[in-house]
Amino acid sequence: MSPAQPKSTARSVTLDALWYSNPIFRQILGICSTLAVTNLVLNTLVMCVALTIVTGLSSWTVSLLRNAMPRNIRMMVETLIMAFYVIIVDIALRAYWPEMSRNLGPFVGLIITNCILMGRSEAFAISNPPGISLLDGLASGAGYSAVLLLISIVRELLGMGTLLGMPIPFFAGPHWDKWVIMVMPPGAFFMLAVAIWILRSLGSATEEKPS
Amino acid sequence: MNLSHEFGSALVVCFAAIFTGNILLTTFLGMCSFLSVSREVKTAVGLGAAVVFVMTCTTILNWAMYWLVLVPLQIEFYRFILFIIVIAAFVQFIEMVIERYSPPLYYSLGIFLPLITVNCAILGAALFMVIRKYTFLETIGYGFGSGAGWMLAIVAMAGIRQKLAVNRIPKGLQGPGITLIIAGLMALGFIGFTGVLQAQ
Amino acid sequence: MKDKAWYPVLFMFLVTAIPTALLIGLSQYTRARIQANTQISFEKAVLCAVAPDSAPTLRGMALHQRFLAVINTNISAAAGAYRLMDGATVKAYAIPFAGKGFWATIKGVIAIAPDKTTVLGFQIYEQSETPGLGAEIAQPWFGKQFQGKTLAAGVAPIIFRRKGEPLGPHDVEAVTGGTQTSVRLERLLNDAVATWRAALINARTAP
Fold first, then answer.
1. d(CA A99, CA C45)
2. How far apart are CA C162 and CA C159, in angstroms?
3. What was the ipTM of the complex prediction?
4. By the CB < 8 Å criterion, does B101 face chain C?
């Protein structure tokens, strides 16, 4: 895992979340809620931003309340806090960006069940000060987002020839036969497997280098 | 709408939920337990059966909660919290009932129940039910179908992985990597069902 | 204080009550806007369908004003269709259609010329079909192919054909890979158009 650090510094927290304990290719957590929207980069971007903000704010709130929270109802309170922020995002999308809200469907709400949120709350925010908990939440969200954005870029480019809705010169032209499978669910499975394969192989190669 | 039309519609929804719109292979819900519990057929069947039961019952309960309580009170946004509470409470209740009335069943099935509470497929099914505005009969079909579809996927996956256990798999792909590729191939296979539903 | 029995209850109550109050406030504040959004997206679809080449880039209130200025909303006088007026002459009929798609409701507008046969435009404004497949019905390329087509007589004014088949004056190309969506869209579109035509004939022959 991460190289030994005496206590959680901002640097170690960020590195951990982005690479050593990356939620997607290391822990394989929380892929359910976003994988379905990775066929379009814009949708993925919105989902990832939403998830990062919610993770950060939930971790921050849980950390603020950590001393006042009774141990035995801990999980219920954490769930309520996460739900609160997710609902705000859902209502805001529905009011100010209705088309995106329709595209994302129920997946905004499913952020609540995303294992990452509960994972960060339980593993970090409950026993750390608010400032660094906020950073940890945001960094976990960023690590998650980076991999998913990579997957969505490949999917949209190969499957539809566009990026963020704008046609890309070679891929949108007549010489490129669009890979429809990239637009469909199997494409997401394959891309995620390939991403995990590449990133894990890269990770173990750097870790096995003699120090 | 007459009753036979409603039943027909519910059956179509059920069929679609199992095959053409499989909640795991098409909308990617319930992946975490899918990736970790799909190593042996026996455990997969156990978890799958539990999921079918919980999903059918909670989707129906959530339908009632949504249309009879939340909508009249104009607090539809509360559904995220309420559905989770209903699911958690239901699973807790079932656990108590099973423990009380059938200890053998509890010992074989009991460990799965906490796993189900965090299974995003259960909440996802309820949320889809709201978005697609299913009627009561359609909800029964959808809840059962989603659960059955999820069970079908996880049992099939377990069967395949049991056969793969003796094969050499590249290091980076071991575990979740190869499981996802198999899932992708299964999803591809299920797309073949799309043409079956020509009626309606 | 944390050890008292009532503390968890109080804590739970506060953690539930305060956010709920905030959320109810937010929900009420945005409720009117959400309803307005739905109305605006419908009006935009009507305006885009009746005049596809000069599609307005207006938004919000400006779009609503334009809609009220040029569209006759007395739909009962035109068998359920909205009319694009230029003074007292009808320039187009806009027929809304809605029904169950493959996943959820599909809503759209089809615009017919005053000759009641030529199609002027087609616009989907609500759908939850599979992105890249069924959802292609909302893409510009799909709607564009309706322009200039004519309505066939009978119960199937527009026919959806597979990709590669020759397209006649009443035919459009269905979405490849979105068969279920295309089938349902074809049915609900034709139902709406055929019903409107029948209602017009009845209105004309009514005493």
1. 13
2. 10
3. 0.84
4. no
